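Dear colleagues,

I hope this message finds you well. In preparation for our joint manuscript, I am sending the N-(5'-phosphoribosyl)anthranilate isomerase (Magnetofaba australis IT-1) sequence together with its predicted structure, so that both groups work from identical material. I would be grateful if you could confirm receipt.
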Amino acid sequence: MALAIKICGVTTLEDAWMVQDAGADALGLVFYKKSSRYVAPETVAQWAGRMPPLLTVVGLFVNASLEEIRRAEFLCGLDRIQLHGDEAPEFCQAVGPRAIKAARVAQADDLLGLNRYPARALLLDAKVDGAYGGTGHAFDWDILRRFEPDAPLILAGGLNPDNVAEAVRRVQPHGVDVSSGVEAAPGRKDAEKTRRFVENARAAAVAGA
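The corresponding structure tokens are as follows:
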């Protein structure tokens, strides 16, 4: 299976096109108001008809209501719903087959119970107190050696152009997700960093195939 690459925290239409030009597969839109990468669904709705046609569009939510998610899904034409908060398996079930469940990981115990989520994929991010992602911190990838997820695994947390190849080789995930590691400033992506991230991730995936 080819490695999927997602660039998260996109806040402008310009950066959305840059992400596609860099060769990524998906972009993430953060609909969490406390994030420095927040973008309003109404803003994204204004991009209708001008979004890059080849990207999977993922909406990221943190402890949002089902009504909030459905509204953003309708306004923005989301392909996937990333649940990045403390949502229960039952909520994931209610969201439906587009759901990606994110979990914050610091130790092996944080992986317990994740297979109870009926998710399209599991995204593993670093656990940092008071934050729901986008911190630039990584977790110990060796924790995953004995983890057997029932859904495809997406690796996140502290990835950047310089370490993504090692991450792909060691973890062999189905996908990788980056936000702060390819930024010029919070919410604004750097084209060169994004291009290098995609190239390095793809090269490692091909070498390990």
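For the figure legend, we might mention the following. The mean pLDDT is 94. Residues 191-208 form the longest helix (18 residues).

With kind regards,
E.M.
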